TrEMBL record:
CDD domains: RuvC. GO terms for molecular function: DNA binding; DNA endonuclease activity; hydrolase activity; metal ion binding. This is Crossover junction endodeoxyribonuclease RuvC. Keywords: Cytoplasm, DNA damage, DNA recombination, DNA repair, DNA-binding, Endonuclease, Hydrolase, Magnesium, Metal-binding, Nuclease. InterPro entries: RNaseH-like_sf, RNaseH_sf, X-over_junc_endoDNase_RuvC. Pfam families: RuvC. Belongs to the RuvC family. PANTHER family: CROSSOVER JUNCTION ENDODEOXYRIBONUCLEASE RUVC (PTHR30194:SF3). It comes from Leptospirillum ferriphilum. One of its GO terms (biological process) is DNA recombination.
Length: 177
């Protein structure tokens, strides 16, 4: 029997405030979203945004800025898991793919430091689980999220939209694994 939208993982049941941080990693722009609620059909957005770093800054400084912002979110909200977009390779732009390594590394480090699980999710799985097809467009994913999270949902960038979807799917994994 599969769990319903109202069933809660026993590890989360005693904590009415459980949240998931979704992270769409990128060195130039990292999207984030924190969703919280007692069940999938009663989620609310606690935080969302895009951390942008200037290409003129040294990579170490850019990574530091991302670390500080994500660490702040993990300290501020009752996050119980981090859903991270998992990129195995980027054939279209291998240089950009290589720059994801440090960003993914800091997210993994933050998960460890804050004692929360890291939930890797592929772009195809994200699209398929939210829209029903792994080939869905970003717009289709955002429309489906608006249905789940409410039509008043405002998404400021594609990075935010991806992070929102990751948080939603990560939450569903934690509530009904």
């Amino acid at each position: 029997m599969s769990p319903s939208l109202h069933e809660v993982n026993p590890l989360l049941r005693n904590n009415p405030r459980h949240a998931v941080l979704g992270v769409d990693p990128g060195l130039a722009a990292t999207g984030f979203a924190v969703l919280e609620g007692p069940s999938l059909d009663r989620l609310r957005v606690l935080a969302q945004g895009t951390v942008r770093t200037e290409s003129t800054l040294p990579v170490s400084r850019r990574i530091g800025l991302l670390y500080d912002r994500l660490d702040g979110l993990l300290s501020e909200y009752p996050v119980k898991g981090i859903a991270l977009e998992d990129h195995f390779s980027r054939r279209a732009s291998p240089g950009a793919g290589l720059m994801l390594g440090p960003v993914v590394g800091i997210v993994a480090l933050l998960a460890d430091r804050h004692g929360v699980p890291l939930l890797p999710i592929s772009p195809r799985e994200l699209k398929h689980r939210i829209t029903g097809t792994g080939a869905a467009s970003k717009v289709a994913v955002q429309r489906a999220l608006a249905v789940w999270l409410g039509n008043g949902l405002r998404i400021g960038s594609t990075h935010e939209g991806d992070a929102m979807g990751l948080a939603f799917l990560g939450y569903s994994r934690m509530v009904a694994p």
